[in-house]
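Retro notes
What went well: the complex prediction finally ran end to end.
Inputs used:
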Amino acid sequence: MRTPLRADGPAELLRRRLSSLASLADADMRLLAGLQIQRRAHAITEELVGVGEVGRSPRLIVSGWAARLRTLQDGRRQIFRLLLPGDVIGVADRANPLAWSSVVALTRVETTDAALLAQALKENRPEHAGTVGALLIAAAIEDAGLLDQIVRLGRQTALERTAHLLLELRWRLGQAGLVNGDRFALPLTQEVLADIVGLSVVHVNRTLQSLRRDRLINIRSGAVELLDVDRLVAIADFHPPRTLAGSIEPQRVLARTA
Amino acid sequence: MRTPLRADGPAELLRRRLSSLASLADADMRLLAGLQIQRRAHAITEELVGVGEVGRSPRLIVSGWAARLRTLQDGRRQIFRLLLPGDVIGVADRANPLAWSSVVALTRVETTDAALLAQALKENRPEHAGTVGALLIAAAIEDAGLLDQIVRLGRQTALERTAHLLLELRWRLGQAGLVNGDRFALPLTQEVLADIVGLSVVHVNRTLQSLRRDRLINIRSGAVELLDVDRLVAIADFHPPRTLAGSIEPQRVLARTA
DNA sequence: CGGGCTCTTGACACCCATCAAAGTTTGTGG
DNA sequence: CCACAAACTTTGATGGGTGTCAAGAGCCCG
């Protein structure tokens, strides 16, 4: 229980995630196996990417959680997106030194160098078609997540936002093989949750208790269980990214890359 | 005063916008001149892109305003981003049929075929380096705008959100040459404004009046004037995309494209 | 064992939503 | 060009959802 979030290894983790997005060939596997090197540990609250920073080497999160966020002058904080094991930083980005955001470790985080992935994307070799396709889909899902976040913050109540966030996490962690039944680790303080869903800490607390009272979730020290996914989905108007391997033909994805 | 938003022409409009993002060569100009064709008019409320739709041909907005938005089951609406003259639809998108959003005309809108731009981006010829670079920067700015929107909705008050939106519009319209001093057209109902800033119509109305009372803005039937930009910036914590032609070396942008 | 986070709870205030209705502007057809 | 309808804006009254402040309880870690 020392490092509850540790996954088996970078290659395994990424293999699980990417193969849920596109089918991977042997060459893809060999590519992913090359990701063992250059591992690095980051302490909690460490800044993985500073505001306005460019050109730091791309990295893959092996274990731990981080967040892409912005802080206002007066200290108010808004988290744009959580970064989970299997997520990648700076791989499929556009040239966007413009997006004033930073990446901060929310727990202890272990990353590994992901230059190989960025390179694969750039070279776009046919034998790595699976990897490239999957990375592009992952990027598209990331974009969709930002839109979800906008809807949550703009038009949903505290209860809806919270339910929606939990469902999103269940889905994303599920892709990385980090969900057991409907239980998963949630190594976030309520203050962090508040900075995601745009509420105060106190109200996050009350919202979680309301969900607990209604037997929708079970939450305790670093882990959650979703007790009634259907009702949560109804509450949150949740739609998972429609991407379950094959719903998009790899050809189309590649065509757009060329 | 029949069509207050009409700009001089697609080529002129784009030239102004793109040349504020990167320097354009003669070949770029010739490319942009080819955009006259295939013009089309869209009635107000017409859906330019349906939810989940893919592969419609890319278009450039020549005149009028549109919005990328999502509607919840129960009718609540959230606008992700306004699309203004000089904005482009479906040009620099990733493969993202995943982002469940649609594009709707908020006024009468005139578009023109932008396949040439998408093609230039794909081919990435050296002689069109300016166009390609500018389109990429525009896409990055678009991304940054989504992050701004998240901060607005998650962590800012009604007053701050509204001020921020007006400043964003001033900046974006300025790029397209559609701002006079600090006056610009704002052909939106308060209901639409509400769907952008995540408030009720009534409260948008009160917020605008508060801004007017404080002599920060002057707003009347389809147009606004920002009376005190500095104070508005202070209220909204507004930071324009740091992209004023040259702040980013074209080389870097291109390097990332290759 | 103590000190600091984090979580929890209560009281209270305020921002914003909702409901309702009156003005005002816009658009349209006669 | 007028008249009317529809859409939009404005205003008031009221209520509810969240924020803020404060204090206590639980927990983790040194």
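What we learned: Residues 141 and 147 of chain B are 10 Å apart (CA to CA).
What to try next: split runs per interface for comparison.
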